[in-house]
Request: fold
Amino acid sequence: MGDRREFDATLVTCQSWLLSTNIDCDESLFSQKLWMALDRTRYMQSAKTFIMVDRPFWKDKVPDAARDVMSMTVTDRLTCGTYLFDLGDDKPGVVCLSYSWMSDALKMLPLPVEQRVQLALDTLQKIYPKVDIKRHIIRDPITVSWEGDPNFLGAFKGSLPGHYRYNRRMYCHFMQRDLRAEQRGIFIAGDDVAWIPGWVEGAVHTSLNAVWGIINHLGGETIKSNPGPGDRFDELVPPALPDE
Reply:
């Protein structure tokens, strides 16, 4: 507490809502239109529950059949998505018992990890009545609900109809030639700034944009044979809507 440092440029990669909640951020750093875009970003709820198991038992074969006793499972039941991870037949594995989103994730939010595990196991028992998952568990389970974490407030961005203008404002912010002096030098990146939300590709795209912006802000430039995103911005910029 009380430590103060000054930098010529700053790259912010946290969820944008944190800039108006957990982080004391001067309003003059962004235009009101950009603040609107940041605040209207829509984050999706999501919950995951993991268990570690003694071995990848799901590879066992059904008697008198060629198929595995269990496989990756996508269902409209409580678990929504169940995923299986292993490092070899003779090594412990991990089961993501449940990966759910939005209203399905909210069903899990108030529940402790033990109850989440039991509900997931009960659901999977109905789908795989002959598979005893519980007897393979060797470690305490782990669970996460991103919307319940004060440093996330949601798992990932999910744009709504009409959000094109907000996406464009955030995505194009790294081009700061037309910004006021006090708004230059802070750059944003992450999947919630990207055109492709919820995936690492969008985070990488916006990070590359921001790095170009920082280089340009500090007086640097890319080599002519390998132009950066800002060098080709006027050619590739997403079209603006009439009210922008």
